[in-house]
Amino acid sequence: MGGAGGGQINIVTLSGNSHFHGTAYEFLRNGDMDAHSFNQMGGSNFLVQNNFGASLGGPVKLAGKTFFFLNYEALRHVETDVMVDTVPTAAEDAGDFSQSGVNIYDPASAPTANNPNYNPNLPVSASNPQYIRQQFSYNGVLNVIPPWRLTKAASIMLNKYTPLPNTLNMGSSTMMGQPTVIGAGNDSNNYLDMRNEHVTNDQGTIRVDHSFDNGDTAFMRYSAASAYGFMPEGLPGFGLYHDNLS
Question: How far apart are the first and last CA of the chain?
Fold first, then answer.
């Protein structure tokens, strides 16, 4: 084959003959007919998939030497994707991390105070900080960012485009005594996102063959395909749209 950097595709297509032949088919998958897994959530098994097509081949005219063959295939696929995300709580949106189980520090205070117990022979870590940082506090409550320190852009993103939690920390769930997800805190894995992906594919080929009286043959083939759809990614309202034609 050779040193091409991309993919290499070999196509073999059928030719028609002196008799008409055709096929038609449909392959169906549907969530209403699927069994549920042990820990499947209601509504998460939604699936409607149709894979169908047809082909036909034969002579252009009876007793002739020109033949055709054409086919068409399509895919229609809609399926619910279940994703577990981590989103801030309403309090965290407002800068209040006092119930989040973590300490947050003012980054502006980091270079101002050296840690007298810092050991330069050891890596910098939570137990061996190079600087003594100042915890955020507001109205005497630790781990709360003062309102004037919150940027407008961040507040708009958090309050307009980021959903609030809709479930408990799913990282704390267990299966046979083992955690299924390792959470980073008591506000982790707190948003259950169920959205549908859509896939629509169409493809087809037409081929015409001709046999000459001297024994030579020639054929023409044309193939076309299209694929478009949507794949949910990240937070609600975001995802990947694709629209390809070949």
Answer: 23
Instruction: Give the 3-state secondary structure percentages of the chain, helix then strand then coil, rounded to 5.
Output: 10, 40, 45
Buried b (16+ CB within 10 A) or exposed e, 106-123: eeeeeeeeeeeeeeeeee
Distance CA 196, CA 161 (A): 19
Alpha helices by DSSP H, listed for the chain, are 90-93, 152-156
Q: Which two tokens stand for residue 23?
A: 């096929």
Amino acid at position 182, single letter: I
**Using one digit for the tens of pLDDT, what is the confidence trace for 45-91?**
789 999 999 999 999 987 789 999 999 999 999 998 888 888 888 99
The residues, any chain, with a CB within 8 Å of residue 226's CB and separated by 6 or more, are 201, 202, 203, 244, 245, 246
Looking at the chain, the whole-number percentage of residues with pLDDT higher than 70 is 86
Structural domain boundaries of the chain? 1-87+164-246, 88-162
Indicate the pTM of the whole model.
0.68
